[in-house]
Amino acid sequence: MLMKKQKLKILFLCTGNSCRSQMAEGWARHFHGDKYDFYSAGIEKHGMNKRAIAVMGEAGVDITHQSSKTLEELAPIEFDLVYTVCGHANEHCPYFPGSCKVLHVGFDDPPKLTLGMSNEEEVLSQYRRVRDEIREFVKNLKVD
């Protein structure tokens, strides 16, 4: 009897699992969900970012079914690959046992970029820029 090869488990880790890691998980499922299992988590849990949900929806990717979670909530999962998508998560990345590989690819934080901005269109343009940068990274993801 042939054993079905298990999909690699890939995690996108951020500070609060509200924006960048959620976008990365959404794009990853969109482009590569048939090949790999994707997850996202945060060092902390900040809830889902409404603007991240909105700009992903504009691009045709629905992340409303995803939820903000901490790494502890995914504890039983043994990841094969972890991408830290912000500097804070990279600096505070926990140890992952076994053969898990941890790589860093940093993206700007839209909520920080938009602090003090009052024009919603300007705010969303920052979210869109980061969304598109994450899309290009994830679209070209080379795992094997």
From TrEMBL:
Residues 8-144 form the Phosphotyrosine protein phosphatase I domain. Keywords: Arsenical resistance. It comes from the Bacteria. It holds the Pfam family LMWPc. InterPro entries: Ptyr_pPase, Ptyr_pPase_sf. GO terms for biological process: response to arsenic-containing substance. Coiled coil: none annotated. Transmembrane segments: none annotated. SMART domains: LMWPc (SM00226). PANTHER family: ARSENATE REDUCTASE. This is Arsenate reductase. It comes from Bacteriovorax stolpii.
